[in-house]
Amino acid sequence: MQILDADKESRIWPLFRLGFRVFFLGGALFSCLAMMLWLLSLSGMTVLPGVRNPIWWHAHEMIFGFALAIVAGFVLTAMQNWTGIAGVRGWPLALVAGIWLLPRLLMPLRGELAPLVIMLDLLWLPLVAGMVAWPVLQVKQWRNLFFVPLFIVFTLLNALSYYAAVSGNWLLSERAFIATVLALSGLIAVMGGRVIPFFTARATGTEKTEPLIWLEKLALGSLWLGGLGWLLLPRTDGFNGVLAAILLIAALANLIRLARWNSKLTLNIPLLWVLHLGYLFIPLGLLALAAALLNWGISISLASHWLTAGALGTVILGMVTRVSLGHSGRSLEIGRPVVIAFALLILAALLRSLLPLLVPGMTNIAYHASAMAWMLAFGLFSWVYWPILTRPRIDGRPG
What's the domain count of the chain? Predict the structure, then answer.
């Protein structure tokens, strides 16, 4: 690992010493704010004066504003470990974080059609891609160059969502949003396959489950293919059946994959069971989307929340909790408030995705209760981790 000048490092505000700090804390706090505004909007209050389509805003901001901020923080931090080159810090990190934050703050006032909002929001992910590419190219570690085109793909999907908003095409917006969610689920599946079996083996003192190559290719390939198909295939009964079959294969393959990771050994280890439960939402969400395509009593919006509130929310909370501890020089130990946050987020996912399916008359209650549980979960994380993410490492090392 490249050794940094200690005096130079000490002059950087700790929040900008590594990507996980500003993007994990900023993403968590923003998700609470965005969910509160959404809840107030559902209640009939005018809290988004510039926004023409509050549903579009909610979906866009929770995907491109919240989830991708966490992904950016994770990748910018991980690149330091993967390449051995010091991660982005100081004013460049503050700059890209500021460009991420500005459209989040401006959109409720100026709206999703404002050129300045669109320009800024389409700028920050390519900047992250460039920051990720630089160390990879220096050490020729081509495997991790995968994230650069992925961030460009997310930028194109973001642009497509804005084009749909400008043209008033909600069906195109929905395509873009769910394709992005499937791509993010694919990213979780890739990274989960790398780390969840490893974390489980290390914490439980057991042998790491070795991947089955055919299963890995089937689980990941069908998931990525499902995302591409969702974006590109025509919406006809025949093509819907084909896409549903792909999603069904992806669901079963990922369920088998998870079953091999010794989940039963994690019941007393919250930092592990939250990741296993979060991953379980991926095959459940894929099954729900397949059922929605076949008109089996569930809407696409409801089905997608198994992946958004469920998989993305739960895995993100589990990973930011763990990564923040490790990269701040702390032991992997959490207290009761964080465990409560895990439980609240799983409750939020189940309320939003399951309750309206079981009791349609309680749909509005489910929306409000789920939003409250989400805010409490990420609010607890922000409260506990504020001093961790805004203060120097406790072991005195840079980062």
Answer: 2
Question: Cα–Cα distance between 177 and 170 in angstroms, integer?
Answer: 10
Q: Which domain holds residue 276?
A: 189-393
Query: Is residue 182 one of the residues assigned to a domain?
Result: no
Residue 317 lies in a domain: yes
* Residue-wise pLDDT tens digits, 315-369: 999 999 999 999 999 999 999 999 999 999 999 999 999 999 999 999 999 999 9
* Same domain? 86 vs 216: no
**Domain end position, chosen among 102, 136, 168:** 168
**What 3-state class would DSSP assign to 45?**
coil
84 phi and psi angles, rounded to 5 deg: 80, 10
| Residue 247 sits in the same domain as residue 338 | yes
The string of pLDDT tens digits covering residues 42-85 is 999 999 999 999 999 999 999 999 999 999 999 999 988 888 88
Long-range contacts of 368-373 (CB under 8 A, 24+ apart): 368/39, 368/42, 368/43, 370/309, 371/35, 371/36, 371/38, 371/39, 371/42, 372/39, 373/344, 373/345, 373/347, 373/348
